[in-house]
Amino acid sequence: TMKNPVPQAASLLLEKLLLLVHVRPLSAGSGEEPPAAAAPGYYDTSCFKRGDLLEVPRTLFIHFGIYLGENRVAHLMPDILPALTGDRRQIQQVVTNKRLILGVITKTASIRVDTVEDFAYGGSILVNHMDRLFEDQVLGSEEAARRAEKLVGATAYSLLWNNCEHFVTYCRYGAPVSFQTDKFCETVKMIIRDQRSVLASVLVGLASIVCLGLAPSTTLPTIIVPFFLWMAG
Length: 233
What we know:
Blueprint: H1 5-20, E1 53-57, E2 62-69, E3 72-78, H2 88-91, H3 97-106, E4 108-115, H4 116-120, E5 126-127, H5 141-151, E6 153-156, H6 164-173, H7 179-193, H8 197-212, H9 216-232
Helix pairs in contact: 1-7, 1-8, 3-9, 5-6, 8-9
């Protein structure tokens, strides 16, 4: 007999949700700080050119940024802090899981400039890998870098309509597009088409709590985010 695909789809949806917003599930009793990035000099930046589109593939998602030169990468991350303070020193600190989740809930983000090491977190980097999909739309490298620099700072955030991939495709190709969001939406639609989609949504919420803990700072967001994604479908 075939296994029920709904719980499996719900689990996949949860994983994609967490990874698309760059949240790393925390084990019980762990701190909220993300793991340390690679040591300075870990990446050979001599092969990067200003305006290059950098991709860091993960298990279920890809993080994107625009290389600005001199070991600097502009990339978009959900973050609540720019909405609470104008202190650049605080904002520039490593974004914690709590800041990420609250940024998703409040739809706030920051287009920030970090070192290649902080941007990639030890992952492999692909350069201009998406150019093959936009053969006739690739802008000049300097134009792409300037677009990214002009957008640095606080910005609105949407998991589906304004994430890191939308940012880089606008900068390098002139149009905001997100292919991984399209795949994510297909997963959502698959669950909602099933007559037991309500149960699946509940499972996503419960699984979120298990992954992120029962602390008030994580329980409410992890229930609300899957619920509103389900409603939005």
